[in-house]
Protein backbone atom coordinates (compact mmCIF):
# COMPACT_ATOMS: atom_id res chain seq x y z
CA UNK A 1 0.00 0.00 0.00
CA UNK A 2 1.26 3.48 -0.79
CA UNK A 3 2.58 5.60 2.05
CA UNK A 4 0.94 8.75 3.37
CA UNK A 5 2.83 11.19 1.18
CA UNK A 6 1.09 13.26 -1.48
CA UNK A 7 1.52 11.55 -4.84
CA UNK A 8 2.79 13.59 -7.78
CA UNK A 9 1.52 17.08 -6.98
CA UNK A 10 2.27 20.00 -4.74
CA UNK A 11 0.89 23.53 -5.19
CA UNK A 12 3.37 25.95 -6.71
CA UNK A 13 4.59 28.93 -4.65
CA UNK A 14 2.68 32.20 -5.01
CA UNK A 15 4.82 35.34 -5.12
CA UNK A 16 2.78 37.61 -7.39
CA UNK A 17 -0.69 38.23 -8.77
CA UNK A 18 0.37 36.44 -11.96
CA UNK A 19 1.22 33.31 -9.95
CA UNK A 20 -2.39 33.04 -8.74
CA UNK A 21 -3.79 32.60 -12.26
CA UNK A 22 -6.35 35.29 -11.40
CA UNK A 23 -6.44 38.91 -12.50
CA UNK A 24 -5.96 41.84 -10.12
CA UNK A 25 -9.57 42.98 -10.54
CA UNK A 26 -10.94 39.60 -9.40
CA UNK A 27 -8.67 39.55 -6.33
CA UNK A 28 -9.49 43.17 -5.50
CA UNK A 29 -13.23 42.43 -5.64
CA UNK A 30 -12.76 39.52 -3.24
CA UNK A 31 -10.76 41.70 -0.83
CA UNK A 32 -13.39 44.44 -1.05
CA UNK A 33 -16.14 41.98 -0.10
CA UNK A 34 -14.12 40.88 2.92
CA UNK A 35 -13.76 44.49 4.09
CA UNK A 36 -17.46 45.17 3.43
CA UNK A 37 -18.55 42.40 5.80
CA UNK A 38 -15.81 42.74 8.43
CA UNK A 39 -15.15 46.48 8.78
CA UNK A 40 -11.73 47.26 10.26
CA UNK A 41 -9.25 44.58 9.31
CA UNK A 42 -5.49 44.27 8.92
CA UNK A 43 -3.78 43.34 5.71
CA UNK A 44 -2.51 40.20 7.38
CA UNK A 45 -6.08 39.16 8.35
CA UNK A 46 -7.30 39.76 4.79
CA UNK A 47 -4.51 37.52 3.49
CA UNK A 48 -5.51 34.79 5.97
CA UNK A 49 -9.17 34.94 4.93
CA UNK A 50 -8.56 34.72 1.18
CA UNK A 51 -5.57 32.32 1.51
CA UNK A 52 -3.21 34.48 -0.54
CA UNK A 53 0.13 35.99 0.57
CA UNK A 54 0.15 39.63 1.58
CA UNK A 55 3.45 40.43 -0.10
CA UNK A 56 3.10 40.61 -3.84
CA UNK A 57 -0.64 39.83 -3.99
CA UNK A 58 -2.93 41.29 -1.30
CA UNK A 59 -0.60 44.28 -1.01
CA UNK A 60 -1.11 44.93 -4.74
CA UNK A 61 -4.89 44.61 -4.43
CA UNK A 62 -5.01 47.02 -1.47
CA UNK A 63 -2.87 49.57 -3.33
CA UNK A 64 -5.33 49.39 -6.22
CA UNK A 65 -8.33 49.79 -3.90
CA UNK A 66 -6.71 52.79 -2.19
CA UNK A 67 -5.98 54.46 -5.53
CA UNK A 68 -9.63 54.00 -6.51
CA UNK A 69 -10.66 55.39 -3.09
CA UNK A 70 -12.50 52.17 -2.22
CA UNK A 71 -10.59 51.73 1.06
CA UNK A 72 -8.30 53.68 3.36
CA UNK A 73 -5.80 53.09 6.16
CA UNK A 74 -7.07 53.94 9.65
CA UNK A 75 -4.11 52.99 11.81
CA UNK A 76 -1.50 50.34 12.38
CA UNK A 77 -1.41 47.39 14.73
CA UNK A 78 2.32 46.83 14.28
CA UNK A 79 5.20 47.31 11.89
CA UNK A 80 4.82 46.94 8.14
CA UNK A 81 1.95 47.37 5.69
CA UNK A 82 0.49 43.96 6.62
CA UNK A 83 -0.27 45.30 10.11
CA UNK A 84 -2.12 48.39 8.86
CA UNK A 85 -5.82 48.64 9.70
CA UNK A 86 -7.88 48.96 6.51
CA UNK A 87 -11.49 50.03 6.25
CA UNK A 88 -13.90 50.37 3.36
CA UNK A 89 -15.03 53.86 2.25
CA UNK A 90 -18.53 54.95 1.25
CA UNK A 91 -17.51 54.68 -2.40
CA UNK A 92 -16.06 51.26 -1.66
CA UNK A 93 -19.30 50.09 0.00
CA UNK A 94 -21.23 51.11 -3.10
CA UNK A 95 -18.75 49.19 -5.27
CA UNK A 96 -18.91 46.16 -2.92
CA UNK A 97 -22.71 46.00 -3.23
CA UNK A 98 -22.32 46.03 -7.00
CA UNK A 99 -19.79 43.18 -6.80
CA UNK A 100 -22.05 41.21 -4.43
CA UNK A 101 -24.82 41.39 -7.02
CA UNK A 102 -22.61 39.22 -9.21
CA UNK A 103 -21.46 36.83 -6.48
CA UNK A 104 -21.71 36.72 -2.70
CA UNK A 105 -18.81 34.31 -2.39
CA UNK A 106 -16.41 35.47 0.34
CA UNK A 107 -13.62 33.17 1.39
CA UNK A 108 -10.52 31.46 0.05
CA UNK A 109 -9.56 32.66 -3.42
CA UNK A 110 -10.29 30.05 -6.10
CA UNK A 111 -7.76 28.38 -8.39
CA UNK A 112 -8.23 28.43 -12.19
CA UNK A 113 -9.96 25.44 -13.76
CA UNK A 114 -6.86 24.42 -15.70
CA UNK A 115 -4.80 24.39 -12.47
CA UNK A 116 -7.41 22.15 -10.86
CA UNK A 117 -7.43 19.78 -13.85
CA UNK A 118 -3.63 19.56 -13.74
CA UNK A 119 -3.68 18.75 -10.01
CA UNK A 120 -6.26 15.96 -10.42
CA UNK A 121 -4.29 14.32 -13.21
CA UNK A 122 -1.13 14.43 -11.10
CA UNK A 123 -2.85 12.61 -8.20
CA UNK A 124 -4.57 9.64 -9.87
CA UNK A 125 -5.76 6.55 -8.07
CA UNK A 126 -3.39 4.56 -10.29
CA UNK A 127 -0.57 5.94 -8.12
CA UNK A 128 -1.94 3.83 -5.25
CA UNK A 129 -1.12 0.12 -5.50
CA UNK A 130 -2.95 -2.25 -3.19
CA UNK A 131 -1.40 -5.61 -2.31
CA UNK A 132 -2.99 -8.67 -0.70
CA UNK A 133 -1.54 -7.97 2.71
CA UNK A 134 -2.97 -4.45 2.84
CA UNK A 135 -6.33 -5.67 1.58
CA UNK A 136 -6.54 -8.41 4.22
CA UNK A 137 -5.80 -5.83 6.89
CA UNK A 138 -8.43 -3.46 5.49
CA UNK A 139 -11.10 -6.17 5.39
CA UNK A 140 -10.04 -8.08 8.53
CA UNK A 141 -13.20 -7.01 10.37
CA UNK A 142 -15.36 -8.68 7.70
CA UNK A 143 -15.95 -12.40 7.14
CA UNK A 144 -15.58 -13.04 3.40
CA UNK A 145 -15.02 -16.17 1.38
CA UNK A 146 -11.77 -16.38 -0.56
CA UNK A 147 -13.43 -16.11 -3.97
CA UNK A 148 -15.04 -12.77 -3.10
CA UNK A 149 -11.88 -11.52 -1.40
CA UNK A 150 -9.69 -12.40 -4.40
CA UNK A 151 -11.85 -10.22 -6.66
CA UNK A 152 -11.91 -7.12 -4.45
CA UNK A 153 -8.19 -6.27 -4.59
CA UNK A 154 -7.83 -6.16 -8.40
CA UNK A 155 -11.09 -4.17 -8.59
CA UNK A 156 -9.80 -1.54 -6.17
CA UNK A 157 -6.45 -1.40 -7.99
CA UNK A 158 -8.20 -0.62 -11.27
CA UNK A 159 -9.22 2.82 -9.96
CA UNK A 160 -12.10 2.70 -12.43
CA UNK A 161 -15.44 1.09 -11.62
CA UNK A 162 -16.94 -1.73 -9.58
CA UNK A 163 -20.42 -3.26 -9.63
CA UNK A 164 -21.22 -4.94 -6.30
CA UNK A 165 -24.42 -6.98 -6.33
CA UNK A 166 -26.13 -9.59 -4.20
CA UNK A 167 -28.75 -9.96 -1.44
CA UNK A 168 -29.38 -7.16 1.02
CA UNK A 169 -27.45 -7.22 4.27
CA UNK A 170 -24.40 -9.19 3.13
CA UNK A 171 -21.81 -6.41 3.45
CA UNK A 172 -21.55 -4.73 0.05
CA UNK A 173 -21.54 -1.23 1.54
CA UNK A 174 -19.10 -2.26 4.28
CA UNK A 175 -16.73 -3.71 1.67
CA UNK A 176 -16.76 -0.52 -0.42
CA UNK A 177 -16.33 1.80 2.54
CA UNK A 178 -13.51 -0.33 3.94
CA UNK A 179 -11.62 -0.15 0.65
CA UNK A 180 -11.90 3.62 0.64
CA UNK A 181 -11.28 4.46 4.27
CA UNK A 182 -8.64 1.87 5.12
CA UNK A 183 -6.76 1.41 1.84
CA UNK A 184 -6.70 4.82 0.11
CA UNK A 185 -4.87 6.44 3.01
CA UNK A 186 -2.36 8.60 1.18
CA UNK A 187 -3.11 12.30 0.87
CA UNK A 188 -4.05 14.66 -1.94
CA UNK A 189 -4.54 18.38 -2.40
CA UNK A 190 -7.95 19.84 -3.23
CA UNK A 191 -8.72 23.54 -3.73
CA UNK A 192 -11.26 25.42 -1.69
CA UNK A 193 -12.83 26.61 -4.94
CA UNK A 194 -12.38 26.78 -8.72
CA UNK A 195 -12.71 29.84 -10.98
CA UNK A 196 -13.95 29.68 -14.55
CA UNK A 197 -15.14 32.70 -16.57
CA UNK A 198 -15.33 34.73 -13.35
CA UNK A 199 -17.69 32.14 -11.83
CA UNK A 200 -16.80 30.35 -8.61
CA UNK A 201 -17.34 26.63 -7.95
CA UNK A 202 -16.95 25.57 -4.31
CA UNK A 203 -15.09 22.23 -4.07
CA UNK A 204 -13.76 21.71 -0.54
CA UNK A 205 -16.47 20.33 1.71
CA UNK A 206 -16.02 19.55 5.42
CA UNK A 207 -18.54 16.71 5.09
CA UNK A 208 -16.72 15.11 2.16
CA UNK A 209 -13.06 15.89 2.78
CA UNK A 210 -11.07 14.91 5.86
CA UNK A 211 -8.26 17.36 6.54
CA UNK A 212 -4.82 16.03 7.31
CA UNK A 213 -4.11 16.62 10.99
CA UNK A 214 -2.07 19.68 11.85
CA UNK A 215 1.62 18.86 12.03
CA UNK A 216 1.37 15.96 9.54
CA UNK A 217 1.26 18.00 6.36
CA UNK A 218 4.89 17.38 5.37
CA UNK A 219 5.90 18.36 1.87
CA UNK A 220 8.24 21.07 0.65
CA UNK A 221 5.70 23.84 1.17
CA UNK A 222 5.14 23.45 4.90
CA UNK A 223 6.09 26.55 6.82
CA UNK A 224 6.82 28.70 3.74
CA UNK A 225 5.06 32.06 3.53
CA UNK A 226 4.59 31.74 -0.23
CA UNK A 227 3.02 28.27 -0.06
CA UNK A 228 -0.31 28.33 -1.94
CA UNK A 229 -2.83 28.07 0.87
CA UNK A 230 -5.76 27.96 -1.57
CA UNK A 231 -5.18 24.19 -1.56
CA UNK A 232 -6.18 21.99 1.36
CA UNK A 233 -4.38 18.73 2.08
CA UNK A 234 -6.89 15.94 2.72
CA UNK A 235 -7.14 12.16 2.75
CA UNK A 236 -8.43 10.70 -0.51
CA UNK A 237 -12.20 11.23 -0.32
CA UNK A 238 -14.78 8.48 0.09
CA UNK A 239 -18.22 9.87 -0.71
CA UNK A 240 -21.39 7.83 -0.25
CA UNK A 241 -24.69 8.71 -1.84
CA UNK A 242 -27.83 6.61 -1.98
CA UNK A 243 -31.50 6.95 -2.76
CA UNK A 244 -31.29 10.74 -2.64
CA UNK A 245 -29.12 10.90 -5.77
CA UNK A 246 -30.67 12.68 -8.77
CA UNK A 247 -29.39 13.64 -12.21
CA UNK A 248 -29.40 17.28 -11.07
CA UNK A 249 -27.09 16.29 -8.21
CA UNK A 250 -24.47 15.22 -10.77
CA UNK A 251 -24.18 18.69 -12.26
CA UNK A 252 -23.18 22.06 -10.85
CA UNK A 253 -25.64 23.40 -8.29
CA UNK A 254 -26.13 27.15 -8.74
CA UNK A 255 -27.32 29.05 -5.69
CA UNK A 256 -29.55 31.84 -6.97
CA UNK A 257 -29.19 33.79 -3.74
CA UNK A 258 -25.42 33.62 -3.25
CA UNK A 259 -24.62 33.39 -6.98
CA UNK A 260 -21.89 30.76 -6.90
CA UNK A 261 -21.80 27.01 -7.53
CA UNK A 262 -21.45 23.89 -5.42
CA UNK A 263 -19.46 21.12 -7.07
CA UNK A 264 -21.32 17.82 -7.63
CA UNK A 265 -20.51 14.52 -5.88
CA UNK A 266 -18.14 13.22 -8.55
CA UNK A 267 -16.00 16.38 -8.53
CA UNK A 268 -15.68 16.30 -4.74
CA UNK A 269 -14.79 12.60 -5.04
CA UNK A 270 -12.02 13.18 -7.61
CA UNK A 271 -8.87 11.17 -6.77
CA UNK A 272 -11.00 9.04 -4.45
CA UNK A 273 -14.13 6.91 -4.38
CA UNK A 274 -17.80 7.60 -5.07
CA UNK A 275 -20.12 4.89 -3.76
CA UNK A 276 -23.64 4.86 -5.17
CA UNK A 277 -25.39 2.78 -2.55
CA UNK A 278 -28.80 1.13 -3.04
CA UNK A 279 -28.41 1.60 -6.78
CA UNK A 280 -31.75 1.23 -8.50
CA UNK A 281 -33.72 2.79 -5.66
CA UNK A 282 -33.16 6.40 -6.71
CA UNK A 283 -36.07 8.50 -7.91
CA UNK A 284 -34.44 8.70 -11.35
CA UNK A 285 -34.62 5.64 -13.64
CA UNK A 286 -31.52 3.42 -13.37
CA UNK A 287 -30.87 3.54 -17.10
CA UNK A 288 -30.96 7.36 -17.10
CA UNK A 289 -28.50 7.41 -14.23
CA UNK A 290 -26.22 4.90 -15.94
CA UNK A 291 -26.29 6.79 -19.21
CA UNK A 292 -24.99 9.81 -17.30
CA UNK A 293 -21.79 7.85 -16.51
CA UNK A 294 -21.01 6.48 -19.99
CA UNK A 295 -18.75 9.34 -21.14
CA UNK A 296 -16.91 9.79 -17.80
CA UNK A 297 -16.23 6.05 -17.50
CA UNK A 298 -14.89 5.80 -21.04
CA UNK A 299 -13.12 9.14 -21.51
CA UNK A 300 -12.13 9.94 -17.90
CA UNK A 301 -13.58 13.43 -18.30
CA UNK A 302 -16.94 14.87 -17.32
CA UNK A 303 -18.89 17.83 -18.65
CA UNK A 304 -20.67 20.27 -16.36
CA UNK A 305 -22.98 23.13 -17.29
CA UNK A 306 -22.81 26.71 -16.04
CA UNK A 307 -26.10 28.59 -15.68
CA UNK A 308 -24.99 30.65 -18.70
CA UNK A 309 -25.27 27.47 -20.76
CA UNK A 310 -21.55 27.00 -21.26
CA UNK A 311 -20.24 23.46 -20.74
CA UNK A 312 -16.90 22.97 -19.02
CA UNK A 313 -14.66 19.91 -19.04
CA UNK A 314 -13.38 18.55 -15.73
CA UNK A 315 -11.27 15.44 -15.04
CA UNK A 316 -13.06 12.29 -13.87
CA UNK A 317 -10.48 10.49 -11.74
CA UNK A 318 -12.91 8.55 -9.55
CA UNK A 319 -13.30 4.93 -8.49
CA UNK A 320 -17.05 4.67 -8.87
CA UNK A 321 -18.79 1.81 -7.06
CA UNK A 322 -22.36 0.77 -7.76
CA UNK A 323 -23.88 -1.31 -4.95
CA UNK A 324 -27.27 -2.97 -5.36
CA UNK A 325 -29.42 -5.78 -3.99
CA UNK A 326 -31.59 -5.79 -7.12
CA UNK A 327 -31.14 -8.15 -10.05
CA UNK A 328 -28.57 -6.71 -12.50
CA UNK A 329 -30.74 -7.72 -15.48
CA UNK A 330 -33.48 -5.44 -14.14
CA UNK A 331 -31.12 -2.47 -13.87
CA UNK A 332 -28.55 -2.52 -16.64
CA UNK A 333 -27.99 -3.89 -20.10
CA UNK A 334 -25.00 -5.77 -21.44
CA UNK A 335 -23.61 -2.67 -23.17
CA UNK A 336 -23.30 -0.83 -19.88
CA UNK A 337 -21.91 -3.79 -17.95
CA UNK A 338 -19.09 -3.94 -20.49
CA UNK A 339 -18.06 -0.48 -19.33
CA UNK A 340 -17.87 -1.61 -15.71
CA UNK A 341 -14.40 -3.03 -15.12
CA UNK A 342 -15.21 -5.39 -12.25
CA UNK A 343 -18.45 -7.17 -11.34
CA UNK A 344 -18.43 -8.80 -7.89
CA UNK A 345 -21.20 -10.95 -6.44
CA UNK A 346 -21.44 -10.73 -2.65
CA UNK A 347 -23.59 -13.64 -1.53
CA UNK A 348 -25.10 -15.00 1.66
CA UNK A 349 -22.71 -16.45 4.23
CA UNK A 350 -22.33 -20.18 4.75
CA UNK A 351 -23.25 -21.64 8.15
CA UNK A 352 -19.57 -21.59 9.15
CA UNK A 353 -19.17 -17.96 8.04
CA UNK A 354 -22.36 -17.06 9.91
CA UNK A 355 -20.90 -18.70 13.03
CA UNK A 356 -17.68 -16.68 12.72
CA UNK A 357 -19.65 -13.45 12.37
CA UNK A 358 -21.91 -14.33 15.30
CA UNK A 359 -18.91 -15.18 17.48
CA UNK A 360 -17.20 -11.88 16.66
CA UNK A 361 -20.36 -9.91 17.42
CA UNK A 362 -20.80 -11.62 20.78
CA UNK A 363 -17.20 -10.82 21.69
CA UNK A 364 -17.50 -7.17 20.70
CA UNK A 365 -20.82 -6.78 22.59
CA UNK A 366 -19.67 -8.62 25.72
CA UNK A 367 -22.23 -11.44 25.33
CA UNK A 368 -20.92 -14.95 26.23
CA UNK A 369 -20.86 -17.09 23.08
CA UNK A 370 -22.43 -20.56 23.13
CA UNK A 371 -22.31 -23.07 20.25
CA UNK A 372 -25.46 -24.86 21.47
CA UNK A 373 -27.37 -21.56 21.62
CA UNK A 374 -26.31 -20.75 18.05
CA UNK A 375 -27.40 -24.25 16.92
CA UNK A 376 -30.81 -23.59 18.48
CA UNK A 377 -31.06 -20.20 16.75
CA UNK A 378 -30.20 -21.67 13.35
CA UNK A 379 -32.58 -24.61 13.71
CA UNK A 380 -35.62 -22.72 15.04
CA UNK A 381 -35.33 -19.40 13.22
CA UNK A 382 -33.58 -20.30 9.94
CA UNK A 383 -33.93 -23.97 9.00
CA UNK A 384 -37.54 -24.49 10.09
CA UNK A 385 -38.95 -21.34 8.43
CA UNK A 386 -36.57 -21.69 5.44
CA UNK A 387 -35.04 -18.30 6.07
CA UNK A 388 -31.77 -17.32 4.28
CA UNK A 389 -28.70 -16.32 6.25
CA UNK A 390 -27.55 -12.70 6.00
CA UNK A 391 -24.23 -11.29 7.19
CA UNK A 392 -25.86 -8.38 9.03
CA UNK A 393 -28.21 -10.56 11.09
CA UNK A 394 -25.84 -11.71 13.87
CA UNK A 395 -25.17 -8.06 14.77
CA UNK A 396 -28.85 -7.13 14.62
CA UNK A 397 -30.08 -10.14 16.59
CA UNK A 398 -27.49 -9.73 19.35
CA UNK A 399 -28.32 -6.02 19.62
CA UNK A 400 -32.03 -6.88 19.88
CA UNK A 401 -31.21 -9.43 22.58
CA UNK A 402 -29.21 -6.83 24.56
CA UNK A 403 -32.07 -4.31 24.34
CA UNK A 404 -34.54 -6.87 25.66
CA UNK A 405 -32.21 -8.03 28.46
CA UNK A 406 -31.67 -4.44 29.56
CA UNK A 407 -35.44 -3.90 29.72
CA UNK A 408 -35.97 -7.12 31.72
CA UNK A 409 -33.03 -6.22 33.96
CA UNK A 410 -31.28 -9.53 33.32
CA UNK A 411 -27.84 -10.48 32.00
CA UNK A 412 -27.61 -10.53 28.18
CA UNK A 413 -26.90 -14.20 27.54
CA UNK A 414 -27.79 -16.53 24.67
CA UNK A 415 -30.72 -18.14 26.45
CA UNK A 416 -33.51 -19.69 24.39
CA UNK A 417 -35.99 -17.22 25.86
CA UNK A 418 -33.94 -14.14 24.89
CA UNK A 419 -33.09 -15.61 21.46
CA UNK A 420 -36.79 -16.22 20.75
CA UNK A 421 -37.79 -12.75 21.93
CA UNK A 422 -35.03 -11.13 19.84
CA UNK A 423 -35.97 -13.04 16.68
CA UNK A 424 -39.69 -12.35 17.13
CA UNK A 425 -38.86 -8.63 17.36
CA UNK A 426 -36.42 -8.68 14.46
CA UNK A 427 -37.83 -10.91 11.74
CA UNK A 428 -40.91 -9.98 9.75
CA UNK A 429 -42.53 -12.44 7.36
CA UNK A 430 -43.10 -10.83 3.97
Topology:
Blueprint lengths: L16 H4 L3 H15 L2 E2 H8 L3 H14 L3 E6 L7 E5 L1 H13 L8 E2 H9 L10 H7 L7 H13 L2 E5 L6 H12 L3 E5 L1 E4 L2 E4 L28 E5 L2 E4 L11 E2 L6 E2 L2 H4 L4 E4 L9 H14 L1 E5 L5 E5 L3 E6 L3 H4 L2 H6 L2 E4 L5 H15 L5 H13 L9 H16 L7 H11 L4
Parallel strand pairs: 4-7, 5-16, 5-17, 8-12, 10-13, 13-16
Antiparallel strand pairs: 1-3, 2-3, 6-9, 7-8, 11-12, 14-15
Helix pairs in contact: 2-4, 2-5, 3-4, 7-9, 14-16, 15-17, 16-17
Task: For this entry, give a set of tags.
single chain; 430 residues; alpha/beta; Arc Repressor Mutant, subunit A; Rossmann fold; 3 domains; 5-stranded mixed β-sheet; 5-stranded parallel β-sheet; 17 helices; 41% helix
User: How much beta, percentage-wise?
Assistant: 15-25%
Name the CATH superfamily assignment of the largest domain: P-loop containing nucleotide triphosphate hydrolases
Shape label = elongated
Q: What CATH architecture of the largest domain would you give?
A: 3-Layer(aba) Sandwich
Poorly predicted segments: 1-6, 217-223
Give a short account of the largest sheet.
5 strands, mixed
What is the distance, rounded to the nearest whole angstrom, between the alpha carbons of the first and last residues? 45 Å
Number of helices: 17
**Tally of extended strands?**
17
Remind me, CATH topology of the largest domain?
Rossmann fold
Mean pLDDT: 89
Structural class: alpha/beta
Radius of gyration: 27 Å
Strand order of the largest sheet: 4-7-8-12-11
CATH class of the largest domain: Alpha Beta
In total, how many domains does the architecture comprise? 3
Helix content class = 40-55%
Amino acid sequence: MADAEVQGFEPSPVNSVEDTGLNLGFISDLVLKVMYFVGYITGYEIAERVKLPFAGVIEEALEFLKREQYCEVRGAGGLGAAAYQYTITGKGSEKAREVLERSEYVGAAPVPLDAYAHAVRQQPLSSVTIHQRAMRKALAHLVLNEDTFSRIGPAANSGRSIFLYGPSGDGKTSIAESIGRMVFQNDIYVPYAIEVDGQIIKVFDEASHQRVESGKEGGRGRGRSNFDKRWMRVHRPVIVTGGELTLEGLDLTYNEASKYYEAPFQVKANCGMLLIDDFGRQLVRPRDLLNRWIVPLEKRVDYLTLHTGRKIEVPFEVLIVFSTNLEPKDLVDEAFLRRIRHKIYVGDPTFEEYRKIFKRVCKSRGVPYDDEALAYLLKEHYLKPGRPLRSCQPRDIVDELIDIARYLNVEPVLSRDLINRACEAYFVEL
